């Protein structure tokens, strides 16, 4: 039952990420390098989008005034102080009673209520996505983050409605159906499952509504004002051709903004996220809920990037990472980043892991309770037989000798296999078998390569794809500024 639940939640994460990708992100294209960040590198261009908590107006009561000494300045020598325009005094006199960051974790956003139930259900959805309960000591911090996300979501929906952009219930129904189909359930069964686990179908529907509304608003308000010249497309293609053979990384990122005042708390939160990810939590799930970058909606996916496209702090770490590896918290201007490498490849070069294989799998099993020592002689004979299997023609004979099973599978991409098997099978030729793998309890197996079709050549840069990616990056930049303005102008009352 636990295994089935894990499979379900994994599929749910993938389905939700697919929804966001379909509604928010551009279609996958032949990778074009993202425009490099400006010299200041204040963020990862063009994917960084910090989400500060919305500003609220608080009425000061006539209570005893308190005086606090300003914290020491943390700016580097020669660096412009970010508070200079505010002309703040060195000694600050604070009036009124202390106000917690969130009183009851609920808010009224331009007259629209975000309830405690809304937050509870979205928090439960996070727990479902990560297939683990929310730790008690993490719950309050996560409530604050979830509330921030819900405030942004509400502002996006309100902005779309003000522009007379409607998201019809049928549009949401179709997306819910796709999510349910992704986890092999009907919408009604998905709703029941969510309710049983403390969330609700309405929470997912609201999230979908926000993503569709924001994407349509971007098309109407922003995309029509974006232009990309032919000379810019040509410059990108020239850079791609010049960088042929260089290493690219498929990177996921979780970005947490910080200030000098809360830097220690954010660093601690980053370590807690890393701990959860190392225990098997979903990177995409955590990115969707915690990351304050614009890529949060697509599970933190930065796409294919080269190290030099990222800030130096990230680039130096990325160059030392391989597929499947997770970084520690990396201090960057404005906060902390956690990056994960999903895959690597060489630009415009055929990738041997794109080879399509025809395989035979031989598996042998052991009686329940068999010890490792008792199984060792059989395993040694099985390993020796695999080394001299004589191609796929000898697979059935070997299976019969060990009373094993044979499964034929064609059209298997090498890159879709587990990383350990990829590394083992990259240099293997047709007719060879892997070393035995698996476990005594669940069975030991080998894979025999019956056929191998290598990728002939990598595709040349596609001008239309490059144009689309440049346009999308500029839309994202304008969208971040637009959301910033919505937050700044919002009337938000925390309750």
* Secondary structure category: alpha+beta
Task: Tell me the strand order in the biggest sheet.
Answer: 6-5-8-7
Mean pLDDT: 79
- Mind telling me the CATH class of the domain at 236-350? Alpha Beta
Question: Which oligomeric state applies?
Answer: single chain
| N-C termini distance | 40 Å
CATH architecture of the domain at 236-350: Roll
Helix content percent band: 40-55%
Number of strands: 13
- Radius of gyration over all CA atoms, rounded: 26 Å
Q: Count the helices. How many?
A: 14
Element-level helix/strand string = HEEEEHHHHHHEHHEHEEEHHEHEEHE
Kindly report the CATH topology of the domain at 236-350: Chitinase A, domain 3
Shape: globular
What are the low-pLDDT stretches, counting only 5+ consecutive residues below 50?
1-7, 18-79, 99-105
Major sheet size, sense and barrel closure? 4 strands, antiparallel
Strand percentage: 15-25%
Q: How does this structure look, described?
A:
Keywords: Chaperone, Isomerase, Periplasm, Rotamase, Signal. Residues 27-77 have a biased composition (Low complexity). This is Parvulin-like PPIase. It comes from Sphingomonas humi. Residues 1-22 form the signal peptide. This protein has 495 residues and is α+β, with helices and mostly antiparallel strands. Among the domains are: 236-350, Roll (Chitinase A, domain 3), CATH 3.10.50.40; 352-453, Chitinase A, domain 3, CATH 3.10.50. 42% of the residues lie in helices and 16% in strands. It is built from 14 helices and 13 strands. The protein has helices at residues 2-23, 116-130, 136-162, 169-182, 187-196, 201-221, 230-242, 263-278, 283-290, 312-318, 372-387, 395-401, 419-425, 463-489, and strands at 66-69, 91-94, 107-109, 112-114, 247-257, 301-305, 330-332, 335-346, 356-364, 405-413, 437-439, 443-453, 492-494. The strands form four sheets. The chain has a four-stranded antiparallel sheet, with helices on both faces. A four-stranded antiparallel sheet has the order 10-9-12-11. Helix 2 (116-130) packs across helix 3. The protein is globular, with a radius of gyration of 26 Å.
């Amino acid at each position: 039952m636990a295994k089935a639940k894990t499979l379900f939640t994994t599929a749910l994460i993938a389905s939700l990420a697919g929804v966001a990708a379909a509604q928010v992100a551009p279609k996958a294209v032949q990778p074009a390098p993202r425009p490099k960040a400006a010299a200041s590198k204040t963020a990862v261009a063009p994917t960084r989008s910090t989400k500060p908590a919305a500003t609220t107006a608080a009425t000061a009561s006539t209570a005893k005034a308190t005086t606090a000494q300003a914290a020491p300045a943390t700016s580097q020598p020669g660096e412009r102080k970010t508070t200079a325009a505010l002309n703040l005094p060195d000694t600050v006199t604070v009036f009124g009673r202390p106000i917690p960051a969130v009183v009851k974790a609920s808010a009224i956003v331009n007259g629209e209520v975000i309830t405690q139930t809304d937050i509870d259900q979205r928090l439960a959805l996070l727990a479902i996505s990560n297939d683990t309960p929310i730790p008690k000591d993490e719950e309050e911090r996560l409530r604050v983050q979830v509330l921030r996300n819900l405030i942004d979501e509400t502002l996006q929906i309100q902005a779309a409605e003000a522009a007379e952009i409607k998201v019809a219930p049928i549009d949401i129904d179709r997306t819910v159906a796709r999510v349910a189909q992704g986890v092999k359930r009907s919408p009604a069964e998905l709703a029941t499952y969510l309710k049983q686990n403390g969330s609700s179908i309405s929470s997912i529907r609201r999230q979908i509504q926000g993503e569709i509304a924001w994407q349509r608003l971007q098309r109407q308000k922003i995309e029509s004002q974006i232009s990309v010249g032919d000379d810019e497309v040509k410059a990108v293609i020239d850079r791609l051709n010049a960088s042929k053979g260089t290493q690219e990384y498929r990177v996921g990122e979780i970005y947490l903004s910080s200030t000098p005042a809360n830097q220690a708390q954010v660093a601690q939160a980053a370590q807690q996220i890393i701990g959860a990810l190392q225990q098997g939590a979903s990177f995409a799930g955590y990115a969707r809920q915690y990351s304050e970058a614009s890529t949060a909606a697509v599970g933190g996916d930065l796409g294919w990037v080269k190290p030099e496209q990222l800030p130096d702090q990230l680039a130096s770490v990325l160059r030392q990472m391989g597929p499947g590896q997770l970084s520690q918290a990396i201090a960057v201007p404005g906060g902390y980043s956690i990056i994960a490498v999903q895959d690597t490849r060489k630009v415009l070069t055929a990738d041997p892991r794109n080879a399509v294989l025809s395989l035979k799998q031989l598996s042998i099993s052991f009686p329940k309770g068999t010890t490792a020592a008792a199984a060792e002689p059989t395993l040694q004979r099985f390993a020796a037989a695999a080394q001299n299997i004589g191609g796929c023609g000898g697979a059935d004979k070997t299976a019969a000798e060990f009373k094993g099973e044979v499964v034929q599978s064609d059209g298997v991409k090498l890159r879709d296999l587990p990383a350990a098997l990829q590394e083992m099978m990259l240099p293997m030729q047709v007719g060879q078998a892997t070393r035995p793998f698996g476990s005594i309890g669940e069975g030991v197996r080998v894979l025999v390569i019956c056929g191998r079709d290598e990728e002939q050549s990598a595709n040349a840069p596609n001008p239309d794809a490059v144009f689309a990616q440049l346009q999308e990056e500029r839309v994202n930049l304008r969208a971040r500024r637009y959301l910033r303005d919505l937050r700044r102008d919002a009337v938000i009352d925390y309750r």
